[in-house]
Design goal:
alpha/beta, Rossmann fold
């Protein structure tokens, strides 16, 4: 039996989420404009790009999939993951994330522009998820919690509400950390951190030059039996499978890696972790395809998808979204893994 057939958890969520709640159109449009402009400025020279093997499974069986914003997305022949290849080298990407106007815009305005809805639909949900899994840890003391490359400090308030964790750390934060009435947060560089019991890295895998190296660095800093929580996007999801290169919200360098479900399983295992949960509780696949079709009426869809979207009512759309969640066919992924005891 394959790993994908042994998966232990299928999660269905329904909170009335809409795309504009967490990605306000005006902010998304400006972030995309800045990202594409900055990408051309930072990565426009051919010698700035280098070829890589599949960031998920490590195989070198790439074939061109489509062009987007002047960059080539390849598809792995082994695990079917999508990834930008060739891509900017690691040093240039680090410079982009520290110096680009798009990065400053994201840190200074994007989280704030969607703060209340993002907090309810994403941060609170993520904190609850971590609490449920981490609450089962066998520990005589309160476990430590760390968020990696924090750009939504409110996650610490949501985590503090759980009353489960002891020390709270922000690892290499992207915005200044300010204590609240609920949470005292210590900012650290990753190499300075003590052994960490519970770690989150939300929406990080998709823009790492080398996702395996990123996970291996976290693995080294975690305590035995420590838990790591990840969220990302997958090319296995309904909206990306239907829209492919027409997906307007996929752009470089925010999305270097759109790994498949199979590829994500291989990635975390290759990085030394034991898989605890891999589910796709996304609520927006159908809505996103409907939005793109409304903006581009000439878009040709597969007959089944056209019938579903054009000839069926919102109840059918909601039921179909539930189906996508249950069977790991949504593009929003959340992953919990454990560092095996030493």
């Amino acid at each position: 039996m394959s790993a994908s057939n042994r998966i232990m958890k299928h999660t269905v969520l329904s909170s009335g989420l809409h795309d504009a709640d967490i990605r306000p159109p005006a902010l998304m449009s400006e972030l995309m404009r800045l990202s594409l402009r900055d990408a051309a400025r930072f990565f426009g020279e051919p010698d700035a790009l280098e070829s890589v093997a599949c960031p998920a499974c490590g195989q070198d069986e790439a074939r061109p999939a489509f062009e987007k914003g002047g960059f080539t997305f390849a598809q792995c022949g082994a695990c079917q993951s999508l990834y930008v290849n060739p891509r900017a080298n690691a040093a240039l990407l680090d410079r982009y994330y520290s110096e680009s106007e798009a990065s400053r815009f994201r840190a200074a305005q994007f989280a704030e522009g969607a703060a209340s809805q993002r907090r309810y639909h994403q941060l609170r949900s993520n904190a609850s998820w971590m609490g449920q899994v981490a609450g089962e840890m066998d520990s005589e003391t309160s476990p430590t919690y760390a968020d990696v490359q924090t750009y939504s400090p409110a996650i610490f308030d949501e985590v503090a509400e759980l009353g489960l964790f002891g020390a709270l750390y922000s690892i290499d934060p992207q915005v200044p950390m300010v204590d609240s009435e609920k949470a005292h947060v210590t900012s650290l560089r990753l190499e300075e951190s003590p052994p960490l019991d519970v770690v989150s890295a939300f929406e990080k895998l998709e823009h790492q030059y080398a996702p395996q190296g990123f996970l291996e660095q976290l693995h080294q800093r975690m305590a035995p039996d420590g838990l790591l929580f990840l969220t990302t996007r997958t090319c296995s999801g309904f909206d990306l499978q239907v829209l492919w290169d027409k997906a307007p919200y996929i752009y470089v360098p925010e999305h270097l890696n759109l790994m498949s479900i199979d590829g994500l399983e291989q990635l975390v295992q290759r990085s030394g972790f034991e898989l605890v949960e891999l589910s796709t509780p996304g609520q927006l696949d159908v809505e996103l395809v409907l939005q793109v079709c409304a903006a581009n009426p000439s878009l040709v869809l597969p007959p089944f998808v056209h019938t579903l979207l054009a000839d069926r009512d919102p109840l059918a759309h909601r039921d179909f979204q539930d189906f996508l969640q249950k069977h790991r066919l949504s593009s929003h992924v959340r992953i919990a893994v454990r560092k095996q005891g030493e």
